[in-house]
Write a structure and sequence with these properties.
It is a single chain. This protein is mainly α. The chain has one domain. 77% of the residues lie in helices and 0% in strands. The longest helix has 23 residues, at 26-48. The protein starts with a helix and ends with a helix. The relative contact order is 0.14.
Length: 212
């Protein structure tokens, strides 16, 4: 259920991003919704050797992702009026997928650290593919509090699995932690240190200042 819910909200996010950033018809919107919804899970399944990926073994994933795209397109004026809807859906998808990605990796008999890595990749993968398709710098590379919240949620999940205390309450808690950190980062504009290629230039010498 968490996987399908994550697929739906990431599908909405992909569709809304498509409509805001690009002049796409309904086919383009649905395609970007499916790519965003399924990208992270497909990357995860390929990395753990679960082939074909779950997205192609269970028709519900494609149906939910495409359905989210259609719903977003039909009600596009409503969604786009809500200023933060894209960010909220992105954070929700990130939170749900970091949890399900970690549990899937753990079920494949990977260690806690490897499970955290794959959980994080599952969370950020769909959004990264989405940004590449629309020719945008991926959010995971430009926003410090994107991969970090996913890693936090994945870590809580992995620790609970390792201690054999994982359950529905823990899954909700891990997702809530990821979602809260991501939304706090957006609200307060928090980021990790970033690079500024042009900022390292040497200051002008006193002689140059006098000439000016």
């Amino acid at each position: 259920m968490l996987e399908l819910l994550g697929t739906f909200v990431f599908g909405l996010n992909g569709a809304l991003t498509a409509m805001e950033s690009e002049n796409l018809d309904i086919v383009g919107v649905v395609v970007l919704a499916v790519i965003t919804a399924l990208g992270g899970g497909i990357i995860r399944d390929v990395l753990i050797g679960s082939l074909p990926p779950a997205a192609f073994r269970d028709w519900r994933y494609l149906a939910v992702g495409a359905g989210a795209g259609v719903i977003a397109f039909v009600a596009r004026r409503l969604w786009l009026r809500l200023e933060r809807s894209i960010t909220v859906f992105d954070a929700a998808g990130l939170a749900l997928f970091c949890v399900t990605g970690t549990t899937t990796a753990f079920a494949a008999h990977l260690g806690p650290f490897q499970s955290v890595v794959l959980g994080t990749i599952t969370g950020v993968g769909g959004g990264t593919v989405r940004d590449v398709v629309i020719r945008k710098v991926p959010t995971v590379l430009s926003s410090g509090l994107y991969a970090v919240p996913a890693a936090c949620g994945a870590t809580v999940t992995a620790v609970a699995l390792e201690l054999h205390v994982y359950g529905g309450a823990v899954a909700v808690l891990a997702a809530a932690i990821c979602f809260s950190i991501r939304m706090a980062g957006v609200h307060f504009n928090l980021n990790l240190p970033i690079s500024h290629p042009g900022s390292a230039a040497a200051p002008p010498s006193p002689d140059e200042d006098r000439l000016e």
